[in-house]
Design goal:
Chain A is mainly alpha-helical. Helices cover 67% and strands 0% of the residues of chain A. Classes of the chains: A mainly alpha, B alpha/beta.
Chain lengths: 487, 308
């Protein structure tokens, strides 16, 4: 069940009405309803993997309690490592086994040793990377005495499986979400209206910008060998907007949906393409994952407190892990390594916290310096996205080689846009409109959060209605799944 | 909470009104390239406008031909007449079973045919049917069946075009439209056939065609079954025909045997591919459409069988 599907448009109001009308007076009933709805939502993807989700939930719930009951550090450690190993074990088998087996076989074949490794070829259970990290953060927090184990199984299960975040995050923390699940929630008009607004903007980003950009990005990346450097740059550009609008659009819908149920999820994106350096970019891109790695890997490894070598080592570790988290492919690892390389200079020069505020606060346009920095930062991320999107490393290298050839100065080939040539200029216009709105709303939680709030109601509703119309007039009819569902 | 629901419902009404107004503005004033998901062009291709208008006036046919462009460009009603058959061609561009069913439901009682010849180009069962739905919305009658078709396709382009079409009909905006008998190289022949100005297939022989497996869409199969049921219910003989395409085009489906078995199991079925001595270069004007030479050879063979 996609967020941008008719099924979800039916599912959400039903759960919403049951939640606020039927289960209104009982927190316990509300949580049970959320759990049933979440399991139903997940089962719509693939009911066969529901057992894995329930098993993972049971494991972390039980080990959490055992850790709380442990009378000595040894026992606590045992339950902690049991949970970590089993969680990562499942992730390893389902997500990484084939990658390791194939890479090992490739390595041996380079040494002249022929092997015939058995590959599992199993489907990746949707959301496994997300709910595994949910569970891990919970057991780590208990182990480090940051929280007490949750005794109520339903409440804990809702924390892991709450349907808006179940399949593609944001990756929540028990310290943030569990207290909200345990607290009596009352309906708040402003909160719910804000949720609807965020859903609207998320849908616009996904079905208009991301899906349309995807058509061109796919056409160019899938046939990159026949195109000139200039076309390939356009391909990378389309992919940069595709992945941003796809994932941040998903996150907006998730946050907005959660808000309809009186729950605030962690913010996942904060206008990353307006970042003035890479450090700022990583504070604004997939924030829940970056902060997860910071809190549970980087800081325990010593963070930036040690010497230069320690900083370099830890930075590389978290970026490589972040790349690897995305998928079992060397392209993701190189993407992570590239970002580590981008990040290091500012870290070593202690300039990684230079840009903590919003760019050009209180001004209509950025300064020349800010514009230059934004362009350079965007260019660097664009380059890294090529690895992220490419089928394999060879494809990425070929793609980049062509960009840096003389053909960069050729006019882009018409054939790249042959499928929907007429729409090309429309998409460019929509991109300009989108960037303008994002720029106007860059200081808010999401772009249209405050736009029109002080206007007369009819005018404000007119603005939202125009967004609805633009969605219907320009949405991609080929549609596509959210990219991050595959992770 | 009640205030929220009330406001939400009011917003839905308001947004719907704004939507309809913008849709009309877009349809009336925007150049085509800015109307990505609105495609309403009466008489745009395949003479469907003339065909539908003519279908309203004729009756008591021996044969009704139906299907995609392979039908309206492949079955010449003049040749049918030479064999003594009074016929009408209800084919339309990219017509899929969903539209075939709709057209038959609407015109069978008017045309009263003794036989339906349904051209079943395999691709039509793999096609979502949106393109053809736009053709029917812009050129045909907008009624309850068209609305059902739009719901079954569930595509925003179809919905937008249908809403805009309702507006055009309601305000009589198509009253001055007339479709020319000759459009480009196509000439509309009374009876629904479209004759292409004589041309030859320029595709070099041996051009590689990407192989593909024929996998029909479930709702198109369901529509096909309903068409068969409809013909049976009305006591009309139904013949399924695959008209000839070039050899490379025919061989692009790796499971042609499965296609033949599929259709044979449904009704009387003839596949004219590889059974006629047709030349890929002189009997076609492109890879999958016969020219008038090819039409003559194919129709002679077909009506010869039917006559028997």
């Amino acid at each position: 069940m996609f967020f941008n599907s008719i099924d979800f448009a039916i599912f959400l109001p039903i759960v919403f009405l049951l939640y606020w009308f039927v289960a209104k007076k009982s927190l316990r009933l509300q949580n049970i309803l959320l759990l049933i709805a979440s399991y139903f939502f997940y089962a719509c993807w693939d009911y066969r993997f529901l057992f894995l989700l329930i098993f993972s939930t049971l494991l972390d719930y039980s080990t959490g309690i055992k850790m709380g009951e442990a009378t000595n550090p040894g026992k606590k450690k045992f339950w902690f490592w049991l949970s970590v190993i089993v969680n990562l074990g499942f992730l390893g088998v389902f997500k990484y086994f084939d990658f390791f087996a194939a890479s090992f076989a490739d390595g041996l074949s380079l040494l002249g040793i022929k092997t015939n490794f058995w590959l599992l070829n199993i489907i990746l259970p949707v959301g496994i990377s997300f709910y595994t990290f949910h569970g891990l953060s919970y057991v780590i927090d208990i182990y480090q005495n940051r929280i007490r184990p949750e005794k109520n199984f339903v409440d804990y299960s809702v924390f892991v499986s709450f349907f808006p975040l179940l399949v593609a995050g944001p990756i929540e923390r028990a310290t943030h979400l569990l207290p909200q699940i345990k607290k009596q929630r009352s309906f708040d008009y402003t909160h719910a209206a804000d949720g609807l607004r965020q859903i609207l903007w998320g849908l616009f980003k996904k079905i208009v910008i991301a899906d349309n950009c995807a058509e061109y990005a796919n056409a160019i990346f899938n046939n990159s060998e026949v195109f000139s450097g200039s076309t390939l740059v356009l391909g990378a550009l389309f992919f940069a907007f595709q992945i941003y609008c796809d994932f941040s659009g998903y996150s907006d819908i998730a946050l907005g949906t959660a808000r309809l149920f009186g729950i605030d999820l962690l913010r996942n994106f904060a206008f990353p393409y307006f970042s003035r350096d890479i450090a700022e970019f990583w504070r604004r891109w997939h924030i829940s994952l970056s902060s997860w790695f910071r809190d549970y890997v980087y800081i325990p490894l010593g963070g930036s407190k040690g010497g230069t070598w320690m900083k370099v080592r830890n930075t590389f570790i978290i970026f490589l892990l972040s790349g690897f988290w995305h998928g079992a492919n060397w392209t993701f690892i190189i993407w992570g390594a590239l970002n580590a390389l981008y990040f290091l200079p500012s870290l070593l020069l202690n300039k990684n916290r230079n840009n903590l505020d919003t760019v050009a606060v209180g001004r209509l346009l950025p300064s020349i310096k800010d514009l230059l920095n934004i362009t350079i930062t965007f260019g660097l991320t664009l380059f890294a996205w090529i690895f992220f999107r490419a089928e394999n490393v060879h494809h990425a290298v070929q793609y980049i080689s062509e960009i840096f050839s003389g053909s960069l100065f050729n006019l882009p080939e018409k054939e790249a846009f042959a499928e929907s040539e007429n729409n090309f200029f429309i998409i460019l216009l929509l991109l300009v409109l989108f960037i303008t709105i994002e720029w106007i709303g860059r200081a808010q939680e999401y772009a249209i959060a405050h736009i029109g709030l002080k206007w007369p109601r009819m005018l404000r509703w007119g603005f939202y209605s125009i967004i609805v119309f633009l969605m219907a007039m320009y949405m991609s009819t080929s549609g596509s799944a959210f990219i991050y569902f595959q992770f | 909470m009640k205030k929220f629901l009330k406001q939400f419902l009011v917003f839905i009404f308001y947004a719907t009104a704004v939507y309809l107004v913008l849709l009309v503005i877009w349809g009336e004033f925007m150049p085509n390239m800015y109307k990505k998901n609105l495609n309403y062009s009466p008489g745009s291709y395949g003479h469907m406008y003339s065909r539908i208008r003519e279908a309203e006036k004729v009756t008591n046919m021996d044969i009704v031909f139906i299907g995609s462009s392979h039908a309206y460009r492949g079955f010449d009603t003049r040749i049918a007449e030479e064999y003594g058959f009074k016929s009408f061609n209800l084919g339309s561009s990219a017509q899929t079973p969903v539209q075939t069913k709709l057209l038959l439901e609407e015109y069978l009682d008017k045309l009263k045919p003794k036989m339906i010849v349904y051209e079943v180009y395999p691709y039509t069962l793999m096609n979502d049917g949106v393109e053809s739905s736009l053709d029917i919305i812009a050129n045909g009658n907008i009624n309850h069946e068209v609305l059902n078709m739009a719901f079954s396709l569930n595509n925003i382009k179809t919905y937008n075009s249908l809403l805009y079409g309702y507006y055009r009909v309601l305000f009589n905006r198509n009253k001055d439209f007339e479709e020319n008998t000759v459009i480009g190289n196509d000439t509309y022949i009374p009876g629904g056939f479209v004759e292409k100005k004589m041309a030859y297939n320029q595709t070099p022989s041996g051009t590689e065609v990407k192989e593909t497996e024929w996998i029909p869409i479930h709702y198109q199969v369901a529509a096909l079954d309903k068409i068969i049921g409809l013909a049976k219910e009305k006591g009309i003989k139904l013949v399924l025909v695959q008209s000839p395409v070039t050899k490379a085009e025919f061989k692009k489906y790796i499971n042609n045997d499965a296609i033949d078995s599929f259709y044979s199991a449904k009704a009387v079925y003839y596949n004219f591919n590889q059974s006629l001595a047709l030349s890929d270069s002189t009997d076609f004007y492109n890879s999958d459409h016969l020219n008038q030479n090819g039409v003559r050879i194919f129709n002679n063979a077909f009506f010869h069988i039917i006559k028997k």
